[in-house]
Write a structure and sequence with these properties.
Blueprint (H helix, E strand, L loop, with lengths): L3 H10 L7 H10 L2 H4 L4 H10 L16 E10 L1 H10 L11 E11 L5 E11 L6 E7 L19 H7 L4 E5 L16 H21 L4 E10 L1 H13 L7 E8 L5 H11 L4 H16 L30 H6 L5 H4 L2 H8 L3 H9 L13 E4 L9 H12 L5 E4 L6 H19 L3
Parallel strand pairs: 4-5, 4-6, 6-7, 8-9
Antiparallel strand pairs: 1-2, 2-3, 3-5
Helix pairs in contact: 1-16, 7-8
Length: about 425
């Protein structure tokens, strides 16, 4: 990595001009991995010798976190990891090992508490200590199921590979309805994002043991964008000492921690770029309506002709570019007058939904916390990070805010922050 300016320029040249953080992640954090993260036949043979290509357990077993299948995906040597990171302006100084990646299928629960299955990415270093500390790395917004960490497109593997190459195991959940999970993704449903992420940690513990790399109790938690919000909420769950895990540190990046007080006001006043606002609003409102009914007919919320198509755009088979091409350029063109006002000043069912998914910083971590953000973020305004720090301070917790600078946008904040998070985790060590 060179300078903040050149890093941000690299990210823009790689696809940020398409408008949304989700697009940026799919194009850059994800797309680079596909041609580079290729497993040789010998590497796959080694992986298969350790665990069958799809080692399954009866899907009727519904205990949360029960491992149902392990599927080898990629083996990437150290030089390839370095090459990938360097090519996108990411500091490769912490890369010590190559990595091997697996898709895990496991039992969890859905938004209404019913049994469900989900998938996620487990990445192990090719070397390092026999017993490994674990990193939970929760990803940002994607609309196509294959763009999740374990998905067939191989996207959203850059930061899991970055952390694993430093010598830790990494569990990167796909979330519900993405990757190989059935149904549609309950976007920004905090509760089910946390249960899927926690149960992924349990499945990772089982899989790692079977693969001959048992885990310690130590868990480091990080995530970007949507995943930053999930990381804070997962940290709260881990802090309760359940399931034998021990939270060591929290390092979320550019998360929408304050939906009601920062993110939605940013959509209303233009701090969130209009095209990004259209994408996020459409995804959020259609997903939440399946959990907490907001409307009976899409035409109550969305203008014609978008009302007829908007729900099916988020069925998991459309990528961000396709979704954005089918939607208008501004929230005013997307929403009916009544719902444009409701977004500006949330009330009723919408306000209740926002409050139900907020509050991820309303607890007192005993583990150290660092919050990372960029000052030019027009997807998740840095006001979210400031609000999180203030909320923690009210409870006596001093969270260090790492401001990457006034010219660093949403994706640029991830490029700069991710290697800094790895170095911080290295400095803390396990305990």
């Amino acid at each position: 990595m060179t300078t903040r300016t050149s890093t941000t320029k690299t990210a823009r040249n790689a696809g940020l001009h398409r408008g949304a953080a989700a697009v940026a992640l799919a194009a850059v954090l994800g797309g680079v991995i596909t041609p580079v993260a290729r497993a040789t036949p010998r590497a796959h043979a080694t992986a298969t010798a350790k665990v069958s290509a799809t080692a399954t357990v009866s899907a009727s077993v519904t205990a949360r976190g029960r491992l149902l299948a392990v599927t080898p995906l990629d083996t990437v040597d150290r030089a390839e990891v370095v090459e990938t990171l360097t090519g996108f302006g990411v500091d490769p100084a912490t890369v010590r090992y190559g990595v091997t990646a697996y898709r895990l299928t496991y039992a969890t629960i859905g938004p209404h508490g019913r049994p469900a299955t989900a998938t996620g990415l487990l990445v192990l270093p090719c070397g390092g200590p026999h017993r490994l500390d674990l990193v939970s790395d929760t990803h940002g917004t994607v609309s196509h199921r294959d763009d999740a960490p374990s998905g067939g497109a191989g996207r959203n593997r850059l930061t899991p590979y970055l952390h694993a190459s430093a010598g830790r195991a990494v569990a990167a959940p796909d979330y519900l309805g993405l990757g190989g999970g059935p149904g549609r993704h309950p976007y920004v449903d905090t509760a089910s994002s946390v249960t899927a992420s926690l149960d992924m940690l349990k499945a990772a513990r089982t899989a790692s043991h079977r693969l001959g790399r048992p885990l310690t109790r130590t868990v480091y938690v990080t995530g970007f964008s949507q995943g930053g919000q999930v990381a804070m909420a997962l940290g709260r769950e881990l802090s309760r000492g359940r399931d034998g895990f021990r939270l060591r540190a929290l390092a979320p990046m550019a998360g929408p921690y304050d939906l009601l007080g920062s993110e939605f006001p940013g959509i209303a006043d233009g701090r969130v770029a209009p095209r990004s606002a259209v994408f996020y609003l459409s995804y959020f409102l259609t997903a939440q309506n399946r959990i907490h009914p907001l409307y009976k007919d899409p035409a109550e919320v969305f203008r014609a002709p978008y009302a007829q198509a908007v729900e099916d755009l988020f069925d998991g088979t459309h990528n961000e570019s396709e979704v954005m091409a089918a939607l208008p350029a501004t929230p005013g063109e997307l929403l009916t007058p009544e719902w444009a006002e409701n977004v500006r000043a949330p009330r009723g069912a919408l306000r209740a939904v926002l409050k139900a998914n907020d509050g991820v910083c309303d607890w007192a971590p005993t583990a150290p916390v660092r919050l990372y953000a960029g000052g030019a973020d027009t997807d998740v305004p840095s006001a979210n990070t400031r609000a999180c720090a203030v909320g923690l301070a009210r409870l006596g917790v001093r969270a260090e805010v790492v401001d990457q600078g006034p010219d660093v946008d949403h994706f640029g904040s991830a490029i700069l922050s991710a290697p800094q998070v790895v170095r911080w985790f290295d400095a803390l060590g396990g305990r």
